[in-house]
Amino acid sequence: MGMQSARMAYIGKRVYVSIERHRLPSGVIADREIVRFPQSVAVVPLLNDEEIVLIRQYRPAVRGWIYEVPAGIIEGGEDPAETAERELVEETGYEAGIMMKVLELYLAPGYSTELIHIFLAYNLKYVGEKPELHEVIEVKQLKLSKVVDMIYSGELNDAKTVASILFLVYNKSELLKNLSLISNAN
Fold this sequence. Notes:
The chain is 26% helix and 44% strand. It is built from four helices and ten strands. It has helices at residues 80-92, 144-153, 159-170, 172-185, and strands spanning 2-11, 16-23, 29-36, 40-45, 51-59, 64-68, 71-73, 94-106, 115-126, 137-143. The longest helix has 14 residues, at 172-185. It is globular, with a radius of gyration of 18 Å.
C-alpha cells in the first residue's frame, strides 16, 4: 500500500501537480493527479452573538463574486493562528481580541493536499483593512441568520465558508461559552 512512483507535471508559484502511482488498500494500482498546495486558514469574525463579517471577493477561477470568510495561505514558518490574525486584518480591517481554532478540514482530498485551519475571531476592533494588490474585496457585516439563508438559497456557496458557518450555528452555544471563558480569563 502507498505511493509507487511520482513525476512532476506542473510547478507553479504556490502549487504543483504530480502524477502519482499508488497501490490502494484493495491492491489495485491507480494513477492519480495530485495538487500539492500549502496549508491555509479561514476565520469566522464574530461582531457579536448574532452578526458576523464576511467578504465578497471577485474570484477569477469562478469568473465572479462570491461571499467568503476571510482566508489565506500559511506563509513560510508562520503558525496558523498568526496567519489567521494577518488575513483577518488584511481582508476585513478587524483585529481579534480572541482567536480560537475550531476545525481542520481537507478542502478537496480527492485531488488536493490542502488542509485548512478554521478559527473564530471575537472581541473585534476595527484597525483598517490592508488588502493585497491582487485582491478585490468588499467587507460585509451580516446577521448570522441572513448568512444561513444565503447558504440554503445557494447565494453563498464557498465550501470553507459553508462548513465554518454551519459548524458555528450547530455548536454556537458551546463555542460562545468557550469564547466567554477565554475573554474572562484575559
